[in-house]
Each structure stands twice: as C-alpha cells, then as structure tokens.
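From the shared-data thread, chain only:
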Amino acid sequence: MSESRASLPPSEQGQDSKGLTAPVALLVALKIAAGTLLGILVRLRTHGELNFLHSLFCLFFSVNLLICYWEICLFFLRDRIGARAGYWREMQRRTGRPPAHGFFATRIRLTQVLSPAVWADAWAAYCYYDDSYADRRTFGFNVDIANGFVTPVPTLVLYAAFTVGYPSALVAGVIGLALSWQWVYMTSTYLVSFFVARRHTLVSRRDMYIYIVAINSFWILCALLGVYVSIALIANGDYRVLGL
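Structure, as tokens:
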C-alpha cells in the first residue's frame, strides 16, 4: 500500500465504488450480539431455560472469536501497523478525538466487513495507548497473535459444550481449564509488562484505566470464572454448574 493510501481512513482505503455503509462500532456490536444470542436461543430451545453463567460465557466467547480474527489480521498485516498508527496519532493531534473513538465511529462499506485492512486498523488505533503492537519484538504483539491462532477452535468447542452439554463434562472441563488458565496467565503477564515497561506514563490516567485496565480485567475475570466452572465440571462429572 502506498504512503498516500496508508494516510487515508479505513473507509477510503478500499474500492472506490459506492455502497451501504455502517459505523465500525455498530458492526462490532451486531457481531457480538449475534454470537451471544445464538447460544442463548439454542439453549432455550433445547433445554427450555436460561442460565446467567452460560449467557456470560456466550458473550465472552463471542468477543474472543472476534478478537481472534483481529489478531490474525494483525499477524498478516503487521508491516503496515506502524504507518497506520501514525495516521491515528495525527488525527488525535488534529481533532483532539481519541483514536479508539475515531476508529469505532468510522463508517465502512458492508463489503468491507471481513476486510483484514479494516480490522488490522483496530491495532493501529490502539497503538496510541500501547505502541507495542507496532513492534513485533514485544510480548503484547506476540501473545495476541498466539491467542488469535490457538484459541478459536477450543473456544468454539466450549461454546458448544456449555450450550448443549456435549461432549462429556470431563472433556469440556479439561479443555476449559487449560484454555482459561492460559488466558489468566497471559493477560495478567501482559498487564504487568505494560506497567514494567512504563508505558502507562505515555497515556492519560483515564485512557489507562479504560483501554488497558478495564479491557484486560474483563478478560482476566471471565477467565478466572472459566477456571472455576471447569473445575466444577471435572469434579462433578456433569454440567450442573451451568444449569444443565
């Protein structure tokens, strides 16, 4: 991609043809909502009841699957992240608008919903808060790529298992325990590395709490809950902890 092209917002980097557009935030919300509601509706249809823990994990797994796609895009388009990070920093200096707000408010064509260039741009915007994603030598960059390639399949297995109660609780518990513990460990290590590297001194306290602490805390807390549920599945030998 040429430098002039890289300096454009995501909505102007694709084809020049017109088409229906929607804000990135709306498309993200619809994808997560669809993934969450699918599991809830399947459980309601097959078991005739709702369960809070199951609904929460449907949400968490749907978010992780979306992020996994972004992380795969990060890997394949890693060479352009630095240039795009410059675009978002310049936009912030020019408008005073936080890059996260700017990215999610960007309107893209519906034909771009699966465009790797659009979703890799999420990392370019995030570089304003943590520039390790523009440096492939950092822990944050590599651990997120690993999550993107390694966790989609076990996430889908647990999504199905927590919804319909198959495979056996022992199998689901073992998979869930391994997956949840690595989320706890890796996310906690990333959070610690952010502060050890003193990256928090480069952003405002408000941005640090919103985009670093809050986001990663959600991952850690849901993963800790996953550890608890997985242990219960193994110990009980059934899905009663999830109301099945």
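The longest helix spans residues 205-236.
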